[in-house]
Amino acid sequence: MLDLSHLNEQGFWDVERLSQAPLVATHTAAHALCPSARNLTDRQLDAIRASDGMVGLNFDVADLRADAHMDPNTPLSVMIQHIDYLVERLGIDGVGFGSDFDGGITVAQEIQDVSGLPRLLAALRAHGYDESALRKLTHQNWLRILNQTWRS
Questions:
Q1: Residue 1 falls within a domain, yes or no?
Q2: Which parts of the chain are beta strand (E)?
C-alpha cells in the first residue's frame, strides 16, 4: 500500500498513473471544505473512488477548519462535515479514521487523543450514522484495504 497523504498533487497523479493498487491517503481531508495544500481535491477523491481505495480522515483541526486555525475548541461538527463530504464522494466503504495522533497536531479538545474517540462515535451516531457504518469508519475499511494490498 502506498500512502498518498504527504505527496503534492503532481506526485498523487504520478502514483495514480503508475499503480494498479487501490489509492489510499491515510490521513487527509477534503480540500473543498478546507483549502489546505494537504487536503485532497474532488478530482483526487474521484480517482481514489475509481481505484476502490480509501481516505482516512486527519484529525488535525488546521486541516479541517475552513480558516485553517489551530484552535482546539473546534467542534466535532467540523469533523463530521468532512466525514459526510468524504462519504458522499467515496461511499461509506472508502472512508475511515486517519487521526494522525502521532504527528504533533492540534486535535479538537473534545477528542484530544484516542480516549476521546467514543465522543466522536457518539456524535456520528447522533448525526445518523448506524453501527454498520461506524464499524466501517473505525476499522473494517482499513482491514479491506490491508487485505487487498498485503503481500507476503
A1: no
A2: 24-28, 54-58, 95-99
- How far apart, in whole angstroms, are the C-alpha atoms of residue 29 and residue 26? 10
> What is the value of pTM for the model shown?
0.95
Distance CA 3, CA 49 (A): 15
The total number of structural domains that make up the chain: 1
What is the side-by-side strand order in the sheet with 24-28?
Answer: 24-28, 54-58, 95-99
In this predicted model, what pLDDT tens digit does every residue of 97-117 receive, in sequence order? 999 888 778 999 999 899 999
Q: Using alpha carbons only, give the angle 66, 68, 70 rounded to the nearest 5 degrees.
A: 130
CATH code of the domain containing 55: 3.20.20.140
